[in-house]
């Protein structure tokens, strides 16, 4: 486990620890027996309380999470008003927040949260009709939780996934431009972040398709942004992968040639940049495929680059050799 | 009071105080004396009225003091009146910042003196260029987001920073160029533009002069790069209540807790050393003392086996026989400066720079800023020396709300014919314009601080007599050097006392006794 120091203990101390642990183990086993033997169909408040005690000790016991949800659905909700249900679910949400602080990667806690959020009833009543206020409030808080997590670790792809889930389920959708700004912020703070670039690509597609951003100008701006990353750290893969996505199939000849020039200059400045060479080969082959299939110059340039790559990156020697053969120079 | 001590320390400057604390905690009997009524000596933190008194003393000081050499402070001028609430200001006579990684912060932590003070991260570091200030890029993301640098320049700067942060000692880029001027090295070997080379030289390596050597500058940069991120993005911490003086007092407190005796506000009136011609006796419990001092107004004389003093407090006849501890860190500025021109200005207004770059939130702007003027950057300013400006305000409890302190310092490579005020006034004016605080100056003083360097003695030094040089005035280097000198002094003192107090000295002892291991928490039952 992380952050747990290895301690060398004397035999007496070890025996003591074993004794203390034994009593905890016994407690746990008794509790488990009690809960599991109740399963069908005990929906009492008593059972509800027991599941809480058990889950506190072992939050990965998913059977008991299921049991707890069943108790809520079958035992408690049918006897509650929408307001009471909302309060119960809010309570579940605070409980899981505390649990997540201690166990941030347990899928079953996240599951339970999602279930709670999806089951928040419509309410409260406004002018005689149920509003979406409770749901809105809970989903807003959820977004806030995700943002705190991403502030703590901007590269946590679970959190980014969850962020997409929350944004998709919010009763009133956030506008995509604000999401683009969010990715800008995260990338600005540390551009070595696959998830942030990925999220950016998703936002851009939505904005291009909806007409809010002009694809041509926007792409040019994106090339400008990613070049800064490439030049600042040519070893960072996330920027190269984003660049490759921007190029796409290479149909825009002018863009392709321009970017080849940019990377060529980078390679001149940093002659050992493997990714620069690799990308140049890839992009020149796109040029060959789509625009100048007969160019001997391009083929020769690719072969030269591949030969350098074979020296620089010997573990991929055979791949580069295969690519050379495919070029048929 | 029992007047036989193992060690007597003269002067409560930062270096001497660290040594006193270490010796006291190691179990030696220490007496610590300072002629001033405050701790910190030449790096003390003074309230504003104490500062005014200090300034007036040196301004009018025509006495030929027999105990100390030529005046350490000269060309002293002052202007304006001391504003109200003088006690709410903490002014440092030697402003400095603490690198987040280094011997000084390690000493602060290991000795637990860090608990006596408060610290915060230094805010922005900016460099002055053509009338405006520019942020100094400190990290990869700064460089990435910088709109003023070309792509190529970014690549070259990153490559240099990677080089400087790694093991450059045996690198081929450095071979033969260790003593060459750093500015040239940057432009020739890393193809950096002159503008970028200046930023690195003056605002990352904090060089004073254009001809400063490469190797020490690289050492400094590496230290500061590695310090970045430990507590935050800045490489430096700033101490509350005026920094060094407050910290010196903290070490004295630790020393007193270890049993040391403190005597402030009294001078030593006579020194007697045992005749060095006498052969050293083997260990006897009633060994006669090596040194005896008489202190003003104290009836009893004080005796010790080891006398440690700041060089400024030793009389001439003893200083020529003392073992003056030199620092041996590779990052000392080379060539070293000769004199420092200083200015302390009290401002009745805000001292934060209005944020203009990258849309950053200026609500939490720090009032501890570092502003560097490279040589030839200011009309009417110096063409040879860089100038460092530091601000201090209510954020570090150095001034009351709405007020601030400006520290300006210029190192001079040789004796300058001009007064401190003539040299520094253009910079004060420029800074006030940048802060949009032209009309808010309430009190200011200018002075020259002599940096005396004593030639090493050629004969054997007197046994047990150790002298500690003045604190290096460099903004970022000074405190680390103090810690290194203090440790070297400590070991020399211990070696000299070894015979007398054998039981105390354990072969494997460390500079600071190790902190007690903390109890490990059993289990983590978190109730939720």
UniProtKB/TrEMBL annotation, chain A:
One of the protein's GO biological processes: prenylation
GO molecular-function term, one example from the UniProt record: Rab geranylgeranyltransferase activity
Main enzyme class: transferase
Q: Which UniProt keywords apply?
A: Prenyltransferase, Repeat, Transferase
Which SUPFAM superfamilies has this protein been placed in? Answer: Protein prenylyltransferase (SSF48439)
Gene Ontology CC annotations of this record: Rab-protein geranylgeranyltransferase complex
Q: What is its EC number?
A: 2.5.1.60
What is the catalytic activity of this protein? Answer: geranylgeranyl diphosphate + L-cysteinyl-[protein] = S-geranylgeranyl-L-cysteinyl-[protein] + diphosphate
Q: What top-level branch of life does the organism fall under?
A: Eukaryota
Q: Which Pfam families match?
A: PPTA
Tell me its family: Belongs to the protein prenyltransferase subunit alpha family.
What this protein is reported to do is described as: Catalyzes the transfer of a geranyl-geranyl moiety from geranyl-geranyl pyrophosphate to cysteines occuring in specific C-terminal amino acid sequences.
- Give the protein name, as stated in the record: Geranylgeranyl transferase type-2 subunit alpha
TrEMBL record, chain B:
> Which BP terms does GO give this entry?
small GTPase-mediated signal transduction; vesicle-mediated transport
Q: Could you name the Gene Ontology cellular component terms for this entry?
A: cytosol; nucleus; Rab-protein geranylgeranyltransferase complex
The cross-references to InterPro entries, in alphabetical order and at most eight, read: FAD/NAD-bd_sf (IPR036188), GDP_dissociation_inhibitor (IPR018203)
The UniProt entry, under Gene3D superfamilies, shows: FAD/NAD(P)-binding domain, Guanine Nucleotide Dissociation Inhibitor, domain 1, Guanine Nucleotide Dissociation Inhibitor, domain 2
A Gene Ontology molecular function term for this protein is: GDP-dissociation inhibitor activity
Superkingdom in the source lineage: Eukaryota
Pfam families according to UniProt: GDI
Family, per entry: Belongs to the Rab GDI family.
Matching PANTHER family = CHM, RAB ESCORT PROTEIN 1, RAB GDP-DISSOCIATION INHIBITOR
Q: What is this protein called?
A: FAD/NAD(P)-binding domain-containing protein
Organism, scientific name: Rhizopogon vinicolor AM-OR11-026
């Amino acid at each position: 486990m992380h952050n747990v120091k290895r301690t060398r203990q004397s035999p007496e101390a070890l025996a003591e620890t074993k004794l203390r642990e034994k009593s905890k183990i016994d407690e746990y086993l008794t509790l488990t027996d009690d809960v599991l033997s109740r399963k069908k169909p005990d929906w009492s408040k008593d059972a509800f309380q027991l599941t809480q005690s058990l889950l506190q000790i072992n939050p990965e016991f998913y059977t008991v999470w299921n049991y707890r949800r069943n108790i809520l659905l079958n035992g408690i909700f049918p006897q509650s008003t929408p307001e009471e249900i909302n309060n119960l679910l809010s309570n579940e949400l605070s409980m899981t927040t505390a649990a997540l602080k201690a166990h941030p990667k347990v899928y079953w806690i996240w599951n339970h949260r999602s279930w709670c959020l999806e089951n928040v009833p419509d309410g409260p009543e406004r002018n005689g009709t149920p509003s979406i206020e409770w749901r809105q409030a809970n989903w807003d808080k959820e977004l806030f939780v995700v943002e705190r997590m991403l502030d703590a670790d901007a590269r946590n792809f679970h959190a980014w996934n969850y962020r997409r889930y929350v944004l998709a389920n919010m009763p009133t959708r956030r506008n995509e431009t604000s999401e683009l700004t969010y990715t800008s912020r995260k990338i600005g703070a540390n551009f070595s972040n696959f998830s942030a670039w990925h999220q950016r690509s998703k936002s851009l597609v939505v904005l291009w398709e909806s007409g809010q951003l002009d694809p041509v100008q926007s792409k040019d701006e994106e090339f400008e942004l990613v070049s800064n990353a490439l030049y600042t750290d040519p070893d960072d893969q996330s920027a190269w992968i984003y660049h490759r996505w921007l190029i796409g199939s290479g149909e825009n000849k002018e863009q392709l040639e321009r970017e080849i020039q940019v990377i060529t200059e980078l390679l001149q400045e940093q002659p050992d940049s493997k990714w620069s060479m690799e990308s140049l080969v890839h992009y020149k082959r796109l040029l060959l495929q789509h625009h100048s299939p007969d160019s001997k110059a391009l083929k020769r340039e690719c072969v030269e680059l591949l030969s350098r790559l074979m020296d620089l990156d010997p573990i991929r020697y055979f791949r580069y050799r295969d690519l050379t053969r495919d070029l048929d120079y | 009071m029992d007047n036989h001590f193992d060690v007597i320390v003269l002067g409560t400057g930062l270096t001497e105080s660290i040594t006193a604390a270490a010796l006291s905690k190691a179990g030696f009997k220490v007496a610590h004396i300072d002629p001033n009524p405050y701790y910190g000596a030449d790096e003390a933190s003074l309230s504003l009225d104490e500062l005014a008194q200090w300034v007036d003393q040196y301004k009018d000081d025509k006495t030929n003091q027999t105990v100390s050499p030529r005046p350490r402070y000269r060309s002293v001028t002052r202007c304006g009146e001391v504003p109200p609430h003088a006690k709410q200001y903490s002014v440092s006579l030697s402003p400095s910042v603490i690198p987040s990684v280094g011997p000084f912060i390690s000493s602060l932590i290991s000795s637990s003196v860090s608990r006596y003070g408060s610290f915060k991260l230094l805010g922005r570091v900016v460099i002055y260029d053509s009338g405006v200030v520019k942020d100094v890029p400190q990290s990869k993301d700064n460089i990435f987001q910088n709109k003023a640098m070309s792509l190529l320049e970014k690549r070259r700067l990153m490559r240099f920073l990677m080089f400087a942060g790694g093991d450059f000692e045996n690198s081929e880029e450095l071979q033969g160029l260790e003593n060459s001027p750093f500015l040239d090295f940057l432009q020739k070997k890393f193809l950096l533009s002159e503008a970028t080379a200046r930023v690195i030289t003056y605002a990352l390596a904090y060089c004073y002069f254009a001809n400063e050597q490469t190797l020490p500058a690289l050492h400094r940069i590496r230290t500061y790069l590695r310090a970045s991120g430990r507590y935050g993005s800045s490489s430096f911490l700033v101490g509350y209540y005026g920094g060094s003086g407050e910290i010196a007092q903290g070490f004295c407190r630790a020393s007193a807790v270890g049993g040391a005796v403190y005597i402030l506000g009294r001078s030593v009136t006579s020194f007697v050393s045992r005749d060095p011609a006498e052969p050293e006796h083997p260990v006897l419990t009633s060994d006669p003392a090596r040194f005896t001092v008489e202190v003003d107004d104290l009836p009893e004389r004080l005796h010790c086996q080891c006398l440690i003093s700041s060089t400024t407090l030793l009389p001439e006849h003893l200083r020529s026989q003392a073992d003056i501890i030199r620092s041996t860190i590779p990052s000392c500025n080379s060539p070293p400066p000769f004199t420092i021109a200083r200015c302390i200005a009290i401002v009745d207004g805000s001292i934060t720079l209005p944020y203009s770059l990258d849309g950053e939130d200026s609500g939490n702007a720090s009032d501890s800023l570092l502003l560097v003027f490279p040589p030839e950057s200011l009309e009417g300013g110096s063409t040879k020396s860089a100038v460092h400006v530091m601000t201090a305000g209510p954020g570090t409890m150095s001034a009351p709300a709405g007020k601030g302190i400006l520290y300006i310092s210029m190192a001079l490579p040789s004796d300058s014919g001009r007064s401190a005020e003539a040299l520094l006034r253009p910079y004060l004016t420029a800074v006030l314009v940048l802060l949009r605080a032209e009309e808010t100056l309430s009190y200011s003083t200018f002075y020259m601080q002599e940096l005396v360097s004593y030639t090493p003695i050629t004969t054997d030094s007197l046994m047990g007599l150790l002298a500690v040089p003045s604190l290096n005035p460099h903004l970022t280097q000074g405190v680390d050097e103090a810690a290194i000198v203090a440790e070297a002094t400590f070991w020399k003192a211990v070696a000299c006392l070894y015979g007398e107090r054998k039981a105390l000295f354990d072969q494997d002892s460390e500079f600071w006794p190790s902190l007690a291991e903390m109890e490990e928490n059993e289990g983590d039952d978190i109730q939720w």
